[in-house]
């Protein structure tokens, strides 16, 4: 099972869109995909038509057992999506209450790792949509994943958010056996915008080794897909956004040598 997290300590940079687009492309080629919504806003949960304010059972339950995950609980929480091969572990807005706890003290840092261990044979690939705050949930996402995708909107304010995220990673990597590989992905790129062009250049200068050499363009079809509750590749397989995400997926898969896609 491959586990990737999508994170950035800033909202509106394309985390949810990236998670759903990559999940869709993997599912299209026959992979059994699990998407995990760890953002208390529950955007990914809403994307597929569930209301994070009133779902009876959500990922929140996983954190109610002192850091252990009771046998079989993970599977009970899964929901269907509009794609037959994508299952959703939905978020609840109640997840926000976890963010106030100190990750080290709570003993809750490995809840998602334990959850995924229970589902190891049921899925080929997992994508975790992370919250924009460094708290228990982000720590869980980073501890559970094998690779991190960091979408960054190509506008000036987003660059600061990226620096924060890279700093967080440096801290987290001190307590990991192996440094977590990450790929910075420029998003919402608009060729006609001076801000987009200069931010892209700045990102490439500062993060040479970790930046994906291409970018995800601004494409209204991605927004339309979310409105329709469909993964972008089902909604419009030929649109520019999907073409870019297909190239991104290829790069991400190539970064884990020795494992079959
Ligand atoms: N490449 C893109 N082109 C056009 N709209 C996009 C693109 N990526 C994201 N969006 C839209 O921008 C908004 C924020 O994106 P989202 O993925 O929800 O960001 P985050 O999860 O980081 O908060 C959403 O309305 C989404 O549909
Ligand atoms: Mg989001």
TrEMBL record:
This is Cobalamin biosynthesis protein CobQ. Residues 1-180 form the AAA domain. It comes from the Bacteria. It comes from Pseudomonas flexibilis. InterPro entries: AAA_dom, DNA_Partitioning_ATPase, P-loop_NTPase.
């Amino acid at each position: 099972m491959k586990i990737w997290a999508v994170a950035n300590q800033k909202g509106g940079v394309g985390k949810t869109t990236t998670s759903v687009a990559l999940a869709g492309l993997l599912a299209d080629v026959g992979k059994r995909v699990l998407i995990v919504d760890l953002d208390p806003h529950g955007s990914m949960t809403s994307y597929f038509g569930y209301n994070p304010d009133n779902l009876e059972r959500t990922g929140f339950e996983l954190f109610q057992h002192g850091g252990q995950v009771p046998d079989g609980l993970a599977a009970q929480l899964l929901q269907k999506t509009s794609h037959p091969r994508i299952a959703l572990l939905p978020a609840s807005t109640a997840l926000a209450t976890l963010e106030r706890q100190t990750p080290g003290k709570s003993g809750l840092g490995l809840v998602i790792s334990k959850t995924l261990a229970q589902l190891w044979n049921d899925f080929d690939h997992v994508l975790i949509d992370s919250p924009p705050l460094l708290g228990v949930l982000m720590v869980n996402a980073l501890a559970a994943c094998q690779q991190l995708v960091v979408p960054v909107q190509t506008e000036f304010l987003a660059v600061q958010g990226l620096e924060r995220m890279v700093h967080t990673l440096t801290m987290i990597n001190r307590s990991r056996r192996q440094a977590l590989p990450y790929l910075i992905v420029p998003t919402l790129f608009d060729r006609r915008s001076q801000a987009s062009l200069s931010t892209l250049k700045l990102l490439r200068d500062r993060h040479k080794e970790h930046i994906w050499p291409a970018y995800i363009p601004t494409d209204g079809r991605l927004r339309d897909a979310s409105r329709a509750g469909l993964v972008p590749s089902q909604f419009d397989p030929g649109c520019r956004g999907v073409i870019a995400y297909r190239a991104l997926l290829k790069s991400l898969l190539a970064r884990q040598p020795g494992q079959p896609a």
